[in-house]
Amino acid sequence: MASITIRKLDSKTKQWLRMRAAKNGHSMEEEARLLFDQLQSNEISRQALPAGNFDSPSNKAAGVKQKTNSKSTPKAPSKTAPFSSEVLAGKNILLIISGGIAAYKCLILIRRLRERGARIKTVMTRAAEQFVTPMSVSALTAERVYSDLFDRDDEHDVGHIRLSREADLVLVVPATANLMAKMAHGLADDLASAILLATNEPVLLAPAMNPMMWQHPATVRNMRTLADDGIYSIGPGAGEMAESGEAGTGRMAEPEEILQAIEAMLDQRPKPLKGLSAVITSGPTREAIDPVRYLSNHSSGKQGHAIALALREAGADVTLVSGPVSIPNPLGVSVVRVETAEEMKQAVDQALPADIAIFVAAVADWRPAANADEKIKKAKGKSPPALKLMENPDILKGIGNRTKSRPALVVGFAAETQDVITHGKTKLEKKGADWILANDVSPEAGVMGGDFNTIRLISESGVEDWPKLNKQQVAYRLVDKIVGFFDEVVIEV
Ligand code: PMT
């Protein structure tokens, strides 16, 4: 008996096979078998394989459960380029800080960028120096800070041109209404505006200003001009302003969101999951007792959101169904916000069909049988009200055990405080999942709400112990495994 590993096919043929399988609602293995059958009966010939431009939007097709075919072998992590957060390693970023109260957030952004291996040179406007000191910026970037258009040291080689050309990206954080107006009109009367006029590199702005300034027709006009000129922007968001009592749209995007935008712009990694769709649940659910009280848990959404982002970075078309969390939405992912388990189930059903479904949410197993219309009152001499619970729908179990339109890969988590592997194995079976990522959520482990996780991946073929990783690393490792799943189907012939 011989075997053919689909991973060993060239990437164009693999992508073509994946799209064709998705379109016909087959696993890649089944599709390949059908093709062989057809070839054998001379129905198709090699010439029929398209040269292939596979950039079409994702083909949402119902997957077929691969593991039911006993001849598809377990999938090891792909040995080709693993997914990681190395997009920014070695990248040169020119950061322009203009004068606004949000300038202090640059210090956090600089740290995050450097943690990811980026090199940062900074230009500060005179106004920016009123909000953060060049010394703090210089200490964090480990580089000198530039501010003068006519710097004796730099102008001998036309410093502003050099600065604008040696960066992979020019970043303006915060971008004030004034600086954006200068950009829109091609003014160059200081170092920052001269660089922005001289650069031939991509530019990303993070606008921040008072809501009235943001809404002003002049700013609206300038933003439109900048967008037409090919300038990118992130935010601003809505919220409270630094000026007391003011609220509205004008708040600068958070450093984490800006970071994601930068990574998306500079990301040149291959997209092995392009053409596949995924639905992920994340965060807790809230089950109302009355209008002011609810049952919930400590899930923060960090793990689920990180997986959604990593899948998007690998090229998948991702829908994230999130319970109430306080972390930002992952960029480029379509997010559906829900409160209760019932709402989460409906949102997941609506996001199907999908090729991949991953259930990370800590869904409340039960909800109060009655949700009081008014706040339940304490009454003197009366004992506390008894809370009667009823079962919530099990979303994973419903999808995992589907016979029709089941995603090709269904992954669940198991949150346990004891006998992690035994309970994880039971959940794999009962919930009809292909993989269960079991984790210890006892308070000492600090997984719920924390930044780290220790996973045991349970599948039909056994248990894989992962080391303690941060949640982004868990996400990349899982995505790597998913790439392997869709690539490494072995057909025995
Ligand atoms: O959000 P973080 O702070 O980052 O924390 C991450 C996490 C601890 C929440 C995550 O790693 C995790 O373990 N998620 C699963 C939480 C859970 O509810 O586990 P469970 O063992 O009770 O449920 C098993 C599986 O069934 C899970 O995939 C769950 O999403 C799913 N489920 C459970 C109940 C239900 N009614 N519907 C479901 O879909």
**Helix count?**
16
Q: Which homologous superfamily in CATH is the superfamily of the largest domain? A: CoaB-like
- Structural class call reads alpha/beta
Q: What small molecules accompany the polymer chains? A: ligand PMT
Q: Work out the strand percent.
A: 15-25%
Strand order of the biggest β-sheet: 14-13-10-15-18-19-20-21
CATH architectural group of the largest domain:
3-Layer(aba) Sandwich
Number of strands: 22
Counting structural domains, the number is 2
What is the radius of gyration?
Answer: 26 Å
Shape: globular
* Top-tier CATH class of the largest domain: Alpha Beta
What does this structure look like?
By secondary structure, this protein is of the alpha/beta class. It has two domains: 1-83 and 271-368 and 393-493, Rossmann fold, CATH 3.40.50.10300; 86-265, Flavin prenyltransferase-like (Rossmann fold, 3-Layer(aba) Sandwich), CATH 3.40.50.1950. 33% of the residues lie in helices and 22% in strands. It is built from 16 helices and 22 strands. It has helices at 11-24, 28-40, 105-115, 134-141, 152-155, 159-165, 177-185, 191-198, 211-215, 217-228, 255-266, 302-313, 341-351, 395-400, 420-431, 471-487, and strands spanning 3-5, 92-97, 119-124, 145-146, 169-175, 203-207, 232-233, 237-240, 247-251, 277-282, 287-290, 293-295, 317-322, 334-337, 356-359, 366-368, 389-391, 409-416, 435-440, 452-459, 462-470, 490-492. The strands form six sheets. Strands 14-13-10-15-18-19-20-21 form an eight-stranded mixed beta sheet, with helices on both faces. β18 (409-416), α15 and β19 form a beta-alpha-beta unit. The protein is globular. The model is unreliable at 43-81 (pLDDT under 50). Ligand PMT is lined by residues 281, 283, 299-304, 341, 359-363, 365, 392, 394-396, 412-415, 427, 431, 439, 441, 447-449, 453, 471.
